[in-house]
Amino acid sequence: MPSRDMECGQGGNVGPQPNGSRLPIGLPIYPGPWTAKEAFTYLRLDESRDDSAALKALNRLVDKGLIRPCIVGKKRRYTRKELDRFLDSQTERYGDVG
């Protein structure tokens, strides 16, 4: 199991993971909760943005109530289940475009 302080992959690079999933390269496979950087990498918000812009985009989604983080200590954390719920809701709303 990877350590909790493992760095996320850069950009939106995708490749096979040890468990056969197609998560961004370097994204920890542990179930979470994930940091904001891990969450925006999973959502691929960083593909055409730098990290600060991707973080702002994630925070806007939270502020709009589209993603519900949990609070651990004083930090927001994100579960894969919640991020998948968000992605599913967007797929239902806009259809499967890709």
Description:
With 98 residues, the chain is mainly α. The protein has a domain at 36-94. Helices cover 36% and strands 6% of the residues. The chain is built from 3 helices and 2 strands. The protein has helices spanning 36-42, 51-63, 80-94, and strands spanning 70-72, 75-77. A two-stranded antiparallel ribbon has the order 1-2. A hairpin with a 2-residue loop joins β1 and β2 (75-77). α1 crosses α2. The longest helix has 15 residues, at 80-94. The radius of gyration is 13 Å and the shape is globular.
Please describe the biggest sheet, giving its number of strands, its sense, and whether it closes into a barrel.
Answer: 2 strands, antiparallel
Task: Count all strands and give the number.
Answer: 2
Strand content: 5-15%
Determine Rg (CA atoms, Å).
13 Å
Morphology call: globular
Low-confidence stretches: 1-17
Number of helices: 3
Tell me the series of helices and strands, N- to C-terminal. HHEEH
Helical content (DSSP H or I, runs of 4+): 25-40%
Class computed from helices, strands and strand pairing: mainly alpha
Question: Order of strands side by side in the largest beta sheet?
Answer: 1-2
Mean pLDDT: 77
N-to-C CA distance: 31 Å
Helix and strand topology:
Layout: H1 36-42, H2 51-63, E1 70-72, E2 75-77, H3 80-94
Antiparallel strand pairs: 1-2
